[in-house]
């Protein structure tokens, strides 16, 4: 019994609140909205606007730091009091930007005969896949994205992500070079975000569009829960906004957790390889 008690105490003592700050390695300026994951675990957080963060984990675990425009970094949690990220260098080809004339437009991604519902997906990043169709050649520009949200906090923010599908069908290269942070109003809303200034073209390999929850103080709402049997209290934390989901049939579902992409597929080949999944309620408007 004594050995067991000592072992439990030792295990608890290893877990702690890791506090730190993420900065640009060159300028020393703090980096806001950095995605921070405990490697191979569904535990994550986001840096505040001043670059600071707090995450509960064991000091020997690896933390994965990633932000648009910066190289990904992995280091021990106990050594993450100050984390310096190095800016990426890009070898840019000559880019010719042609303005869309917007005489045609189509909406893609609409889901029929399903009820959208909101729930907390935790720190996991969920995406929706938009396969390329030859007919999109006539409306190749991504004009707007529609995101359906439910929020109990005024001015809650969320980050949108756009990935080209890679050669293996997974989310690959990001299409934006800087964060796209969206602010939503309270209640259940349909948020239309104009992407015209980004000159995004629908990739022929297909497109993944998803959202990253910003687990920061201004998005957090706490609720005290009392257990009726034990009378113990716990604090329930919810980070808004919540995103609405549709329950649909798909070939696969991709999620980002623990610092890597995971693919969920059907284990029942007799069902034509299809699975029933909850997919973010996201639509796109394409134009010419």
Explained architecture:
This is Carboxypeptidase-like regulatory domain-containing protein. InterPro entries: CarboxyPept-like_regulatory (IPR008969). The chain has one helix and 23 strands. With 288 residues, the protein is mostly beta strands. It has two domains: 72 residues, Carboxypeptidase-like, regulatory domain (Immunoglobulin-like, Sandwich), CATH 2.60.40; 183 residues, Sandwich (Jelly Rolls), CATH 2.60.120. The strands form five sheets. Strands 8, 9, 11, 15, 19, 22 and 23 form a seven-stranded antiparallel sheet that branches. Strands 10, 12, 13, 14, 16, 20 and 21 form a seven-stranded antiparallel sheet that branches. A hairpin with a 5-residue loop joins strand 12 and strand 13. The chain starts with a helix and ends with a strand. 27% of the residues are buried.
Q: What's the CATH topology name of the largest domain?
A: Jelly Rolls
Assign the CATH architecture of the largest domain.
Answer: Sandwich
Low-confidence stretches: 1-13
Number of strands: 23
Shape label: globular
Any idea how many domains?
A: 2
Distance between the termini: 73 Å
Radius of gyration equals 21 Å
Total DSSP helices: 1
Q: In what range is the share of β-strand residues? A: over 45%
- Secondary structural class: mainly beta
Succession of helices and strands: HEEEEEEEEEEEEEEEEEEEEEEE
Largest sheet, strands/sense/barrel: 7 strands, antiparallel
Percentage of helical residues? under 10%
